[in-house]
């Protein structure tokens, strides 16, 4: 019931004639506050509001809470390192869940994410994909349960 209610509310919030961009979509969801703060601190807001298209594997606030506080605080203060981590979560193009294929996927950061699928579960590196296909007018968001770090 909770999932149905969330889906209904989410659908109403984003079912307007024009979807919001990735940043505004993330803000509206209410579960990506740390991600939005990090995107702003890294100076990536305008890029992710731009034409794209982008596919973002977006860690939730709970995912960011798994990162030790000292490490997260240091990362938020280091714009270059933060941008590297955040762009590792972004793939060029709009890749819907049905189009995701297991294997290496080149990120905007330059390194490859590893996508695996087993028993109906999809993972990106060591993060589980917990929700897919949140549409934005300049791409799509897939929700992950951990922050992934470039090698």
Automatic annotation (TrEMBL):
Keyword Cell inner membrane applies: no
Domain FAS1, residue spans: 19-148
PROSITE patterns: FAS1
Keywords, in A-Z order: Signal
Entry-linked InterPro entries: Adhesion/Biosynth-related, FAS1_dom_sf, FAS1_domain
Signal peptide interval: 1-19
GO CC terms, sorted: extracellular space
UniProt-recorded name of the protein: Fasciclin domain-containing protein
The organism of origin for this protein: Pseudoduganella umbonata
Lineage: Bacteria, Pseudomonadati, Pseudomonadota, Betaproteobacteria, Burkholderiales
